[in-house]
Amino acid sequence: MNEPITAPRQIAYAVPDLSESTLSSWRNRLGVGPFVTIHHVELSRCDSILGDENFDHSSAYGQLGDLMVELIVEHGDRRIGSATGVHHIAHIVPSLDSAVSHCESTGWPVVLDATTVGGQRFVMCDARTDLGHLVELYEPDPRLIAFYAHIRDLAEPPTC
Questions:
Q1: Which of 11, 42, 84, 108 could cross-link to 103 by cystine, CB 3.0-4.6 Å?
Q2: pLDDT tens-digit map of 20-42
Q3: Spatial CA neighbour of 73 closest among 89, 86, 94, 57
Q4: Would you say the pTM of this structure is higher than 0.90?
């Protein structure tokens, strides 16, 4: 079935690096964080518009209100998304196949279909013509849900 995608759970911004200076700037100016950083996210499978080139990227994850913020750096000369600004908006969907079908029927082709070494499959569709960014899709998985909760909990002030 071809169903619309769900509400966004994350907004990702392309940044030039994940240095402490960059992360501090996001914390100080926007209140995002603290950040959990993963350098060179390991993938077990990667099909993309990059061909034989892997989607080599590093990400820092923080929380801003109800929304997770990802700062992403794509390594290499060729990129899936933009080099600066909004890179993608992520959605946790009940059915990845249905959401991908919806995106493709909307005119947003798949530019990346990958799986992390932890087993999380994610797909990015190119909605830049209409929305100015990619759309990332993944199904809920206990580890993914726990990761989202962990990032949210880091941002919560301690209770007495």
A1: 108
A2: 999 999 999 999 999 999 999 99
A3: 57
A4: yes
